[in-house]
Amino acid sequence: MTLIASHRGGSLEAPENSPTSFRHTAGLAVEQVEFDIHPTADGQIVVIHDATLDRTTNGTGPVAAKTLAELKALVISGTADDRIMTLAEVIELFRPTGITLRMEVKSDVEHQPYPGLLEHALRLIDAAGMRARTVVTSFLAPIVGEAVQAPGLQGRIWLVSPVIMDDCGLPGVVAAAEAHAISHVGIRASRLDAGVADYLRSAGLGVGAWAVNDAASVAKVLDLGMEVFTTDIPTTALAMRAERNKP
């Protein structure tokens, strides 16, 4: 069965990476919840997509330049009073559920990796006993390669951007995955077809999809038998999968 990950908590159904979106997702029959992590200036980890605050909060500037207290003073856009969650808070919200954490390790404002971010995040995950229920993802292949070296995770997925696909081609994607011992990749839905899926699978890679955000895209990835996909419309995706799985 193709697994469904609620992307940023289902950002077309509730404001992304917010307490509201994550509570919404916690009540769904999805297999995974996707979210993004950045460090704070005082050594904490928060859940927010962008490296800057401007798009999704009433704040400005780099996330990593603010303390946790400064970040908690901000309001998430599209909500009445939702505040940025810490990684620990998201873990605790989903720990009583059966939903797997799909944690995307983000880069900084210069598109460079944050030193030690994955290691720090795994310590928090381990403190909650959630390593076996965690999938690590990133658009940065070296970060995914770092996750490959961390035993006990449920999975590690390299998210392949269209730019990488255009610059390197599918042979280059396979070569980069092999160089970092990566076994699974995620391809943007708009760049995915049977030929792409078959090529990657023939190279021994597991294949999933991301940005599956309309009914046509959901139908396509289900037809292609993707292992897993992220979607901002998890309720629609669940209904479509259920309809296909009827006896």
Structure explained in plain terms:
This protein has 247 residues and is of the alpha/beta class. It has helices at 19-26, 68-72, 87-94, 117-127, 141-148, 162-179, 194-202, 215-223, 234-244, and strands at residues 3-7, 32-39, 45-47, 85-86, 100-105, 134-138, 155-160, 184-188, 206-210, 228-231. The chain has a single domain, classed as TIM Barrel, CATH 3.20.20.190. It has nine helices and ten strands. Strand 5, helix 4 (117-127) and strand 6 form a beta-alpha-beta unit. Helix 8 crosses helix 9.
CATH architectural designation: Alpha-Beta Barrel
What CATH calls the topology is TIM Barrel
What percentage of the residues does DSSP assign to strands (E)? 15-25%
Q: Identify low-pLDDT runs.
A: none
Q: Helical stretch count?
A: 9
Give short descriptive properties of this protein.
9 helices, TIM Barrel, alpha/beta, single chain
